[in-house]
Amino acid sequence: MLDKILAKVENTIIVGALLSSVLALMVNIVLRYIFKSGLIWAEEYARFAIVWLTFIGASVVIREGEHLSVGIVMELLKNRKAKVFVEKTGILLALLFSVFLIVFGGQLTVETYKLGQVSPSLQLPMWTVYSAVPMGGLLTSYRFIQLLRRKT
């Protein structure tokens, strides 16, 4: 149940971020070339949307089983136990990196919140942009834990 809800939220964020950033950039291009004046905030918005798309998208990639792996190493290993060990070790290292993103991304987000920094064009609090890092770490951690459970 939780997994289905989370998958819908992830997919909605990804589709929304991609479509809205492409739309904002397209409108900005048309305005610049036809009216010689564009939207001041469009590029900044697209950049922020793509940051969120990237960090949430990492979780979706893991969920769909399309995450990076070194296939040649697995092909060279003949022993099934060795393959399982290498695969689990890779997942554990990726999980460790995800936890790193949660901890240090969270610290960065909190510090940015305390400073009250806002973006130049949108006047958006920058902590909302930086919060994509710990959120992505949290989601990828969840997905890597699911992956580990399936491998055992």
Automatic annotation (TrEMBL):
InterPro entries: DctQ (IPR055348), TRAP_DctQ (IPR007387). Pfam families: DctQ. Its main location: membrane. Belongs to the TRAP transporter small permease family. This is TRAP transporter small permease. It is a multi-pass membrane protein. Residues 22-150 form the Tripartite ATP-independent periplasmic transporters DctQ component domain. Keywords: Cell inner membrane, Cell membrane, Membrane, Transmembrane, Transmembrane helix, Transport. It is found in: Cell inner membrane. It comes from Fusibacter bizertensis. It comes from the Bacteria. The chain crosses the membrane at residues 12-33, 45-63, 84-104, 124-145.
